[in-house]
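My current task is to audit a protein record that another person submitted. My question to you is simply how this chain folds and whether the tokens agree. This is what I was given:
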Amino acid sequence: MGTTVRQAARVTVRLFLAAAMTFGLYLFITVLLITATATLAVVGAWMLPETVLLIGRIAGAKRQMVAAWTGREIPEAYQLLTGTARERVRAAVRDPGTATDLRWLIAQYVYGWLFVLAVPLWPLGLLVDGVGCGLLHRRAVVLPLIGRLADLDARWSEALLKPSPKARLAVRVEELARTRAGAIAAHGAELRRIERDLHDGTQARLVSLSMRIGLAKRAYDRDPEAAREMLDDAQDLAEEALAELRHVVRGIHPPILTDRGLVGAVRALAAGSGLDVAVRVDGLEDPGVRAPAAVEAAAYFVVAEALTNAAKHSGSTRASVRLERLRTGLRTVVRDEGLGGADETAGSGLLGMRRRVAALDATFAVSSPAGGPTVIEVELPCVW
């Protein structure tokens, strides 16, 4: 009986919070009326997006309450309200998430008072269940009805707050537009880097090589020894230019990926990083198991950039890399035991990594609290 009473008390508190939210929503009607009047009068249309955002926050609080009760997250699907005042108003009106929140808001005015039904169940439950459980040793039948009311509130809220397919599609289109812009920016930056490397390195060496060969040809008849030294210098310049070209090619698509696969390439990175790097591989041991070339390249560059950042900024001498084959893709995790505090806006290469993997519809997560450790986790979708 004690367990039943404690459970019913916990459920009653939840229903009371839902009723308190509903009471606040009744007071919120004033804000809705002011916003509607101001929007119809045009001069106050700027209030509409702000009110929509406020309704979204209230709906988000209800989603968290339902998730805490059921253990199931209710996804959100809202379009960004940015731009001029007219664009914000248009986006707020056309956003399917706005209609979803308003539908829930109206229904909450009705079923948000389930707490009122729970109140009379307490004296009846204490009497009936007290006698049934204490004297007759039967199961409680009245107090559990309070839990049924909470389940009913959760089911209705989940059904009303779940975004529609149209809303999910709109958010997905907006997300793809952002990732496409990021991919284009990353591609442009990569092209500029390649052009800069070719111009400042390889091209300069080739020009110097051509000049040395020309001087050697002129000096060959009158000073063969000087011409020979110039040709030796020209050979050194040619070798340096080839090394520069190999470096540029590795930046486009490392040949080691083609020759040794992702596992071998990552182990080579770990060996040459200057850190004590432990590489763990799950599900990729078979040489015949390979992800698509674009996925392997993205994972390789994430590991390369992350290890470079760790060597330069973390202050740690140890790191670890984990490559894991998932049913739906490839997970790459890079961890260092350094100082932490990595910031995407500080030019540490994290933004470039995020843009690169976003082009493949991947997830990118960074955990870097002050004091460490720094963990970079990427999941790249692919079909094996």
User: Anything to note?
Assistant: The radius of gyration is 32 Å. The mean pLDDT is 83. The beta strands are 276-282, 318-325, 329-336, 363-367, 374-381.
